[in-house]
Amino acid sequence: xxxxTPRLRKMTLLCAVIALAVVSALTLTRANxxxxxxxxxxxxxxxxxxxxxxxxxVSEENGELVFRAGGKVVGGLVKVGCYPDGGAKSxxxxxxxxxxxxxxxxxxxxxFSHRTYYARVARTQPAASGDTSEVRQDHVFILLPEKxxxxxxxxDPAVVTDAEMLGTAKSFDESLSKVxxxxxxxxxxxxxxxxxxxxxxAMQKSxxxxxxxxxxxxxxxxxxxxxxxxxxxxxLDQFAKGNGKxxxxxxxxxxCIRILGPRNNVPKGWKSGEEWYSKLKPLETTPLPPANRPxxxxxxxxxxxxxxxxxxxxxxxxxxLVASHVFDKHEEGDVLTIWATVFYSEYVLYGREKLxxxxxxxxxxxxxxxxxxxxxxxxxxxxEARDGALFEPSIRExxxxxxxxxxxxxxxxxxxxxLIEKMRRNLVRYLQANGxxxxxxxxxxxxxxxxx
Length: 452
Known about the structure:
alpha+beta; 11 helices; 7-stranded antiparallel sheet
């Protein structure tokens, strides 16, 4: 669960010449596969506009973009964490390949603006599932090392051609490289915003497909939103001057909502931009007190205390809460080892009612304490499961004193609903203990879940 924020890119179309040039940067062999560049359509992910073959259908499911052809899933795109110590090593870089996978082939790709790698992997099911089948996948990783992240394109090599794979990834890379908030020379920010609003309105009146109209609208609104607070100030001033009527006003409201993010207090359902503006009272964050450190020497208390010390929040006014599932423990001398899976989450409160999840994750771990002379315990080591292909081996390594625990951990990781429910209870208890009533959790889809 990695929380991400929209990034704002300029839309670009991929031409056949670029697609063929990129193909020349990576020579792969697939029997009877055509290398002709595809006819393309627009797609969007994480604020970035790019192109995919026109015959593909594109949908966003649980934060991941899914590509289908003829109703069959042929690939996808997801933003993942990418850290120096996780994944399969390639030319000094550790790639975030999926869990339960073996890297068969890998290399760095040329012709991209960002450092980009190709990997072919064989994916297997977790051992606990009893399924011994194997699936081949091709991955293109576009790395953002300064953000500890990567964009992971994956494709079915039996269906997707090299031209389709590399052309799609290259188009995304080109759009990604156009990040910036500099207004073109000779054009004011106001003129730029008006030009883009006019472009959306013109596109909506065109004969383009609904898919392309919606993709163009979404990405152009994100292009406006990338100019941040100055763009917000201009559009709110337009509303204040009575210039927010009709379709133009509706579009300005949508762009403002993207800039405001959780600060937007107006729920879904507004009928016009003017109505939205009339209800707008931007929210500020309310500082939340830290969670109380669990007391006592019970195994669960020790795990939760260690997790609260291990996981730090990113937002200065947020709070980190944890929920744990303890599997077993082992004592040898004065060293206590506890095996547990921990769900950690940072929450931020906007105003007095809107709570959002800022970041979080579910991570198996081995937690080690040293017993002191007075019978209390001091945390000595917190060992997390590693990412990518090293996920299962790392768990088996730190569970070596009790191998059966690794099997339990891996089986539980396939369905950790108990942790989700426990986190919800912990969150409600935290809010009640701090006198925070009338609070709701806003989901990424802007749905409201009542808490107190």
